Amino acid sequence: MQKQETLTKNQKIILDLIEKSDQPLKAYSILFDVKKKGINAPLQVYRALNKLVKIGKIHKIESRNAFIACKNSKCQIAKATVFSICESCEDVTEIHDHKLSEHLRDFKDNKGMKYNKYNLEFFGLCKKCI
Amino acid sequence: MQKQETLTKNQKIILDLIEKSDQPLKAYSILFDVKKKGINAPLQVYRALNKLVKIGKIHKIESRNAFIACKNSKCQIAKATVFSICESCEDVTEIHDHKLSEHLRDFKDNKGMKYNKYNLEFFGLCKKCI
DNA sequence: TAACACTGTGTAATAATATAACATATTTAA
DNA sequence: TTAAATATGTTATATTATTACACAGTGTTA
Questions:
Q1: Across chain A, how many H-helices and E-strands are there?
Q2: CATH second-level architecture of A9-69?
Q3: 0.70 exceeded by the pTM?
Q4: What is the pLDDT of residues B67-125, one digit of tens each?
Q5: Strand pairing of A92-94 and B92-94?
Q6: CA nearest to nucleotide D19 C1': residue
Q7: Residue A114: its pLDDT value, please?
Q8: How many Cα atoms occupy the beta-carbon half-sphere of B30 within 13 Å?
Q9: Among A65, A110, A113, A118, the residue to mutate for chain B (most B Cβ within 10 A)
Q10: Do the beta carbons of residue B119 and residue A124 sit within 8 Å?
Q11: Where are the domains of chain A?
Q12: Which class in CATH covers the domain with range A80-129?
Protein backbone atom coordinates (compact mmCIF):
# COMPACT_ATOMS: atom_id res chain seq x y z
CA MET A 1 0.00 0.00 0.00
CA GLN A 2 1.17 3.45 -0.94
CA LYS A 3 0.38 6.81 0.52
CA GLN A 4 -2.35 8.37 -1.60
CA GLU A 5 -1.03 11.70 -2.73
CA THR A 6 -3.33 14.66 -2.56
CA LEU A 7 -2.80 16.88 -5.52
CA THR A 8 -2.95 20.62 -5.35
CA LYS A 9 -5.01 22.79 -7.67
CA ASN A 10 -2.26 23.42 -10.18
CA GLN A 11 -1.19 19.81 -10.15
CA LYS A 12 -4.77 18.65 -10.79
CA ILE A 13 -5.29 21.08 -13.64
CA ILE A 14 -2.13 19.95 -15.35
CA LEU A 15 -2.63 16.24 -14.72
CA ASP A 16 -6.18 16.51 -16.10
CA LEU A 17 -4.91 18.07 -19.27
CA ILE A 18 -2.20 15.46 -19.75
CA GLU A 19 -4.59 12.61 -19.04
CA LYS A 20 -7.01 13.88 -21.65
CA SER A 21 -4.32 13.62 -24.28
CA ASP A 22 -3.20 10.21 -25.38
CA GLN A 23 0.00 11.69 -26.66
CA PRO A 24 2.82 13.47 -24.88
CA LEU A 25 2.45 17.18 -24.28
CA LYS A 26 5.23 19.71 -24.07
CA ALA A 27 5.58 22.08 -21.17
CA TYR A 28 4.94 25.26 -23.11
CA SER A 29 1.96 23.81 -24.92
CA ILE A 30 0.57 22.87 -21.52
CA LEU A 31 1.26 26.40 -20.34
CA PHE A 32 -0.64 27.79 -23.30
CA ASP A 33 -3.62 25.55 -22.54
CA VAL A 34 -3.84 26.28 -18.84
CA LYS A 35 -3.51 30.04 -19.07
CA LYS A 36 -7.28 30.27 -19.08
CA LYS A 37 -7.25 28.52 -15.72
CA GLY A 38 -4.98 31.07 -14.17
CA ILE A 39 -1.62 29.37 -14.58
CA ASN A 40 0.56 32.06 -16.06
CA ALA A 41 4.19 31.14 -15.77
CA PRO A 42 6.46 28.34 -16.98
CA LEU A 43 7.62 27.67 -13.48
CA GLN A 44 4.13 26.90 -12.31
CA VAL A 45 3.92 24.27 -15.02
CA TYR A 46 7.34 22.81 -14.39
CA ARG A 47 6.73 22.58 -10.67
CA ALA A 48 3.55 20.62 -11.22
CA LEU A 49 5.18 18.43 -13.86
CA ASN A 50 8.09 17.61 -11.60
CA LYS A 51 5.80 16.59 -8.81
CA LEU A 52 3.61 14.49 -11.09
CA VAL A 53 6.65 12.74 -12.48
CA LYS A 54 7.93 12.11 -8.99
CA ILE A 55 4.73 10.40 -7.88
CA GLY A 56 4.45 8.42 -11.11
CA LYS A 57 1.29 10.00 -12.50
CA ILE A 58 3.10 11.09 -15.62
CA HIS A 59 6.36 10.19 -17.31
CA LYS A 60 8.80 12.33 -19.20
CA ILE A 61 9.76 11.20 -22.68
CA GLU A 62 13.37 12.28 -22.47
CA SER A 63 14.13 12.21 -26.16
CA ARG A 64 11.15 14.47 -26.85
CA ASN A 65 11.03 16.73 -23.81
CA ALA A 66 7.40 15.85 -23.43
CA PHE A 67 5.14 14.42 -20.78
CA ILE A 68 2.63 11.60 -20.99
CA ALA A 69 0.15 10.25 -18.48
CA CYS A 70 0.74 6.85 -17.01
CA LYS A 71 -2.24 4.76 -18.01
CA ASN A 72 -1.48 2.10 -15.49
CA SER A 73 -3.75 3.34 -12.73
CA LYS A 74 -1.93 1.40 -10.07
CA CYS A 75 1.36 2.54 -11.43
CA GLN A 76 3.85 3.43 -8.78
CA ILE A 77 6.48 2.98 -11.40
CA ALA A 78 8.03 6.32 -11.89
CA LYS A 79 11.11 4.17 -11.83
CA ALA A 80 10.82 1.73 -14.65
CA THR A 81 9.55 3.06 -17.94
CA VAL A 82 9.55 1.72 -21.47
CA PHE A 83 8.20 3.59 -24.47
CA SER A 84 7.84 3.01 -28.15
CA ILE A 85 8.15 6.07 -30.33
CA CYS A 86 7.27 6.32 -33.99
CA GLU A 87 9.84 8.50 -35.68
CA SER A 88 7.44 9.38 -38.44
CA CYS A 89 4.18 10.35 -36.71
CA GLU A 90 5.71 10.76 -33.24
CA ASP A 91 3.11 8.49 -31.72
CA VAL A 92 4.25 7.39 -28.27
CA THR A 93 3.03 4.36 -26.36
CA GLU A 94 4.04 3.13 -22.97
CA ILE A 95 5.01 -0.51 -23.00
CA HIS A 96 4.26 -2.88 -20.17
CA ASP A 97 6.01 -6.13 -20.87
CA HIS A 98 6.47 -8.39 -17.95
CA LYS A 99 9.38 -10.34 -19.29
CA LEU A 100 11.24 -7.25 -20.41
CA SER A 101 10.62 -5.50 -17.09
CA GLU A 102 11.94 -8.50 -15.24
CA HIS A 103 15.00 -8.61 -17.38
CA LEU A 104 15.72 -4.93 -16.84
CA ARG A 105 14.93 -5.02 -13.16
CA ASP A 106 17.37 -7.87 -12.68
CA PHE A 107 20.10 -6.41 -14.82
CA LYS A 108 23.47 -6.11 -13.10
CA ASP A 109 26.42 -4.44 -14.69
CA ASN A 110 29.98 -5.38 -13.87
CA LYS A 111 30.71 -2.18 -11.96
CA GLY A 112 28.78 -2.81 -8.80
CA MET A 113 26.34 -0.06 -9.49
CA LYS A 114 23.05 -0.08 -7.67
CA TYR A 115 20.17 0.87 -9.94
CA ASN A 116 16.91 2.26 -8.73
CA LYS A 117 15.47 3.45 -11.99
CA TYR A 118 15.61 3.06 -15.74
CA ASN A 119 14.10 4.53 -18.86
CA LEU A 120 14.02 2.75 -22.19
CA GLU A 121 12.90 4.31 -25.45
CA PHE A 122 12.39 2.24 -28.60
CA PHE A 123 12.31 4.08 -31.93
CA GLY A 124 10.91 2.92 -35.20
CA LEU A 125 7.90 3.09 -37.43
CA CYS A 126 4.41 2.31 -36.24
CA LYS A 127 1.98 0.20 -38.25
CA LYS A 128 0.41 3.21 -39.93
CA CYS A 129 3.72 4.68 -40.96
CA ILE A 130 5.47 1.59 -42.25
CA MET B 1 32.22 -3.64 -43.84
CA GLN B 2 31.05 -0.09 -43.43
CA LYS B 3 31.89 3.00 -45.35
CA GLN B 4 34.63 4.83 -43.46
CA GLU B 5 33.34 8.31 -42.89
CA THR B 6 35.71 11.17 -43.50
CA LEU B 7 35.20 13.83 -40.94
CA THR B 8 35.41 17.50 -41.71
CA LYS B 9 37.51 19.97 -39.77
CA ASN B 10 34.77 21.03 -37.36
CA GLN B 11 33.64 17.47 -36.84
CA LYS B 12 37.21 16.38 -36.03
CA ILE B 13 37.78 19.21 -33.59
CA ILE B 14 34.61 18.41 -31.73
CA LEU B 15 35.06 14.64 -31.79
CA ASP B 16 38.61 15.07 -30.46
CA LEU B 17 37.36 17.11 -27.57
CA ILE B 18 34.63 14.65 -26.69
CA GLU B 19 36.97 11.68 -26.96
CA LYS B 20 39.43 13.29 -24.58
CA SER B 21 36.72 13.46 -21.95
CA ASP B 22 35.57 10.26 -20.34
CA GLN B 23 32.38 11.98 -19.30
CA PRO B 24 29.58 13.51 -21.34
CA LEU B 25 30.02 17.09 -22.48
CA LYS B 26 27.27 19.61 -23.07
CA ALA B 27 26.95 21.50 -26.30
CA TYR B 28 27.64 24.92 -24.86
CA SER B 29 30.60 23.73 -22.87
CA ILE B 30 31.96 22.27 -26.09
CA LEU B 31 31.30 25.59 -27.79
CA PHE B 32 33.24 27.39 -25.08
CA ASP B 33 36.19 25.02 -25.49
CA VAL B 34 36.40 25.15 -29.27
CA LYS B 35 36.12 28.92 -29.60
CA LYS B 36 39.91 29.10 -29.65
CA LYS B 37 39.83 26.85 -32.68
CA GLY B 38 37.58 29.16 -34.60
CA ILE B 39 34.21 27.62 -33.96
CA ASN B 40 32.07 30.51 -32.91
CA ALA B 41 28.41 29.62 -33.04
CA PRO B 42 26.12 27.08 -31.39
CA LEU B 43 24.92 25.88 -34.74
CA GLN B 44 28.41 24.90 -35.80
CA VAL B 45 28.62 22.73 -32.73
CA TYR B 46 25.18 21.22 -33.11
CA ARG B 47 25.77 20.41 -36.75
CA ALA B 48 28.92 18.52 -35.91
CA LEU B 49 27.28 16.80 -32.97
CA ASN B 50 24.34 15.67 -35.06
CA LYS B 51 26.62 14.21 -37.68
CA LEU B 52 28.79 12.46 -35.11
CA VAL B 53 25.72 10.98 -33.46
CA LYS B 54 24.43 9.83 -36.82
CA ILE B 55 27.59 7.93 -37.65
CA GLY B 56 27.85 6.46 -34.17
CA LYS B 57 31.05 8.19 -33.04
CA ILE B 58 29.25 9.76 -30.12
CA HIS B 59 25.98 9.19 -28.32
CA LYS B 60 23.58 11.62 -26.77
CA ILE B 61 22.61 11.04 -23.16
CA GLU B 62 19.02 12.14 -23.53
CA SER B 63 18.27 12.64 -19.88
CA ARG B 64 21.27 14.93 -19.54
CA ASN B 65 21.43 16.69 -22.88
CA ALA B 66 25.05 15.72 -23.13
CA PHE B 67 27.27 13.87 -25.53
CA ILE B 68 29.75 11.08 -24.88
CA ALA B 69 32.21 9.34 -27.16
CA CYS B 70 31.56 5.76 -28.09
CA LYS B 71 34.52 3.79 -26.78
CA ASN B 72 33.70 0.78 -28.87
CA SER B 73 36.01 1.53 -31.77
CA LYS B 74 34.14 -0.75 -34.11
CA CYS B 75 30.87 0.65 -32.94
CA GLN B 76 28.38 1.18 -35.70
CA ILE B 77 25.76 1.17 -33.05
CA ALA B 78 24.25 4.57 -33.08
CA LYS B 79 21.14 2.50 -32.83
CA ALA B 80 21.38 0.52 -29.67
CA THR B 81 22.68 2.30 -26.64
CA VAL B 82 22.68 1.49 -22.94
CA PHE B 83 24.05 3.77 -20.26
CA SER B 84 24.42 3.74 -16.53
CA ILE B 85 24.17 7.10 -14.83
CA CYS B 86 25.05 7.88 -11.25
CA GLU B 87 22.52 10.32 -9.90
CA SER B 88 24.93 11.59 -7.32
CA CYS B 89 28.18 12.24 -9.18
CA GLU B 90 26.68 12.14 -12.65
CA ASP B 91 29.24 9.61 -13.82
CA VAL B 92 28.07 8.03 -17.06
CA THR B 93 29.25 4.74 -18.49
CA GLU B 94 28.22 3.02 -21.68
CA ILE B 95 27.18 -0.56 -21.09
CA HIS B 96 27.87 -3.33 -23.55
CA ASP B 97 26.08 -6.41 -22.37
CA HIS B 98 25.58 -9.07 -24.93
CA LYS B 99 22.63 -10.76 -23.32
CA LEU B 100 20.84 -7.51 -22.68
CA SER B 101 21.48 -6.28 -26.21
CA GLU B 102 20.11 -9.49 -27.60
CA HIS B 103 17.04 -9.23 -25.48
CA LEU B 104 16.39 -5.65 -26.54
CA ARG B 105 17.18 -6.32 -30.17
CA ASP B 106 14.70 -9.16 -30.21
CA PHE B 107 11.98 -7.36 -28.34
CA LYS B 108 8.63 -7.28 -30.07
CA ASP B 109 5.70 -5.35 -28.74
CA ASN B 110 2.13 -6.34 -29.44
CA LYS B 111 1.45 -3.46 -31.79
CA GLY B 112 3.39 -4.58 -34.80
CA MET B 113 5.84 -1.79 -34.54
CA LYS B 114 9.13 -2.13 -36.34
CA TYR B 115 12.03 -0.90 -34.23
CA ASN B 116 15.30 0.27 -35.63
CA LYS B 117 16.78 1.90 -32.57
CA TYR B 118 16.63 2.07 -28.82
CA ASN B 119 18.16 3.96 -25.95
CA LEU B 120 18.22 2.69 -22.39
CA GLU B 121 19.37 4.70 -19.40
CA PHE B 122 19.85 3.13 -15.98
CA PHE B 123 19.97 5.44 -12.97
CA GLY B 124 21.35 4.76 -9.55
CA LEU B 125 24.37 5.22 -7.37
CA CYS B 126 27.85 4.19 -8.42
CA LYS B 127 30.23 2.39 -6.12
CA LYS B 128 31.86 5.59 -4.91
CA CYS B 129 28.58 7.25 -4.11
CA ILE B 130 26.78 4.41 -2.37
C1' DT C 1 -0.47 28.97 21.33
C1' DA C 2 3.90 30.00 19.03
C1' DA C 3 7.79 28.38 16.64
C1' DC C 4 9.21 25.51 13.11
C1' DA C 5 9.65 22.70 8.96
C1' DC C 6 7.73 21.56 4.77
C1' DT C 7 5.41 22.23 0.63
C1' DG C 8 3.21 25.00 -2.54
C1' DT C 9 2.12 29.62 -4.89
C1' DG C 10 2.92 33.79 -7.87
C1' DT C 11 5.95 36.71 -10.37
C1' DA C 12 9.93 38.47 -12.80
C1' DA C 13 14.08 37.64 -14.72
C1' DT C 14 17.32 34.84 -16.92
C1' DA C 15 19.84 30.61 -18.11
C1' DA C 16 20.44 26.68 -20.99
C1' DT C 17 19.40 24.09 -25.03
C1' DA C 18 18.44 24.05 -29.90
C1' DT C 19 16.90 25.55 -34.58
C1' DA C 20 15.54 28.69 -38.73
C1' DA C 21 17.01 31.27 -42.47
C1' DC C 22 20.31 32.91 -45.64
C1' DA C 23 24.43 33.22 -48.43
C1' DT C 24 28.33 30.76 -49.80
C1' DA C 25 31.79 27.03 -50.32
C1' DT C 26 33.38 22.35 -50.99
C1' DT C 27 32.94 17.51 -52.25
C1' DT C 28 30.89 13.78 -54.74
C1' DA C 29 28.81 11.55 -58.43
C1' DA C 30 26.68 11.27 -63.05
C1' DT D 1 31.41 20.18 -65.80
C1' DT D 2 27.18 20.46 -64.26
C1' DA D 3 24.13 19.02 -60.67
C1' DA D 4 23.26 17.19 -56.15
C1' DA D 5 24.61 16.67 -51.66
C1' DT D 6 26.98 18.13 -47.76
C1' DA D 7 29.33 21.52 -45.00
C1' DT D 8 30.41 26.28 -43.60
C1' DG D 9 29.78 30.93 -41.26
C1' DT D 10 26.72 34.24 -39.37
C1' DT D 11 22.71 36.43 -37.32
C1' DA D 12 18.70 35.98 -35.15
C1' DT D 13 15.37 33.54 -32.71
C1' DA D 14 12.79 29.62 -30.77
C1' DT D 15 12.33 26.31 -27.17
C1' DT D 16 13.16 24.29 -22.76
C1' DA D 17 14.11 25.00 -17.96
C1' DT D 18 15.79 27.25 -13.63
C1' DT D 19 17.11 31.00 -10.07
C1' DA D 20 15.69 34.13 -6.86
C1' DC D 21 12.48 36.29 -3.89
C1' DA D 22 8.32 37.13 -1.17
C1' DC D 23 4.70 34.91 0.80
C1' DA D 24 0.71 31.42 2.09
C1' DG D 25 -1.12 27.01 3.89
C1' DT D 26 -0.59 22.71 6.61
C1' DG D 27 0.99 19.87 9.92
C1' DT D 28 3.97 18.93 13.71
C1' DT D 29 5.78 19.62 18.29
C1' DA D 30 6.80 21.67 22.35
A1: 4, 5
A2: Orthogonal Bundle (1.10)
A3: yes
A4: 999 987 655 567 899 999 999 999 999 999 999 999 999 999 888 888 999 999 999 99
A5: unpaired
A6: A43
A7: 86
A8: 31
A9: A113
A10: no
A11: 9-69, 80-129
A12: alpha beta
